[in-house]
Amino acid sequence: MKKIFQILLLLTAPTIWAQEKLTLEKCYELVEKNYPLAKQNRLLQNQSELHSEILSKDRLPKVALNAQATYQSEVTQVPFSMPNTTIDPLNKDQYRATIDVNQLIYNGGIIKAQTQLKASQIKAQQKLVDINLYQLKNFVNQYYFGLLLGQEKEELLLTKRKLLQEKSKEIQVAVKFGAVLPASEQVIEAEIIKINQQVNDVKYDQLKLWQHLEELSATAFNTNAKLAIPENFSSINEVNRPELDLFELQKQQIETSQKVIATNNAPKLNAFLQGGYGNPALNMLNNSFEAFYMTGIKLNWTLFDWNKTKKEKEVLEISKQIVASEKETFEVNQKRNLQEINFEIGKIETQLKSDKEIIQLREKIVRSAEAQMKNGVITSSDYLNEVTQLFESKITEKTHQIQLQLAKANHQIIKGI
């Protein structure tokens, strides 16, 4: 199943080829564009437009057809009689069909307020999508710098293998002339085999990280692509995280909800027109089918709601305080995270200074060990030990360099740059 997915990914997804140097920013862009969650912003925008269109329909006339047939046990009767006049009693079975037209004239701005509320809700949802996409940058950093470190390790291992292969040829000549024992050659060969194992381990780790990055970005990468080492990081100290925008949008949403509540008790004025056909019609004493119509205006105004509106506003004020508290908590956590990452950057920079000193000393030791091995003072095992120590020091330095770049990239994410 995994192989099928990889084949489909290669066929359908954009490809980053080896000659195109891959950057961290490009990976961010691909994830933000291709991750399934990114589709929600467009869907939410469509939803917002539909909601606005639905609410705008409330301004249009509403036309309804109503019909009823009833039978009642009693009907209205004239309580007196008139000379020479007969008044037929009403039928107990009555029929009516009407078309009712209602046109909103004034409703205190509730439609506008509801439209603004729905728009603010959609914006908050879109910002939440942005936040979730933004948090994926942490995974991108993890995979990208893991790949970078793997590439650096592989390069150093290949350099070490080349060096030992050259020394192995020199020792072969020395063995041929009886200057050294055959075991010296075997020690070097065993180390070369070990290096090949380490290179294979690095390659498998690289493939795993490439696959993670491909799944996250829905992009097929050439696993031989070179990764650029990020260097130019922004020095801006201002925090501009999307969460801060979300808090502001939540505050605006609450304020818009307050406007909607305020309009609920506003006077509402409607014009209406009713036309129909029934028995009886408007003249209740006419016991026959007739057409009729009625038109006018209607006012509704809630004068007293038992402080319901006041309580609802109090609830929203509490919600606003909760949002302010969440924002304050986020800012405190951000400050702590920035302090921690700054300490981490300082620590790694100090380690890198020591790494350079250690490598310089190790290089001198290796040169000395090489001369001693040629003169038979030390064995190839002793020389190999010093070479291994040198390359371990170089790998440590590369690890610290990549860790420093990762820390700086994480610093950028914490700040929201």
TrEMBL record:
Keywords: Cell outer membrane, Membrane, Signal, Transmembrane, Transmembrane beta strand, Transport. Residues 1-18 form the signal peptide. Its main location: membrane. GO terms for cellular component: cell outer membrane; efflux pump complex. Pfam families: OEP (PF02321). It is found in: Cell outer membrane. InterPro entries: OMP_efflux (IPR003423), TolC-like (IPR051906). It comes from the Bacteria. The keyword Phosphoprotein does not apply. GO terms for molecular function: efflux transmembrane transporter activity; porin activity. SUPFAM superfamilies: Outer membrane efflux proteins (OEP) (SSF56954). Belongs to the outer membrane factor (OMF) (TC 1.B.17) family. This is Outer membrane protein TolC. It comes from Flavobacterium cauense R2A-7.
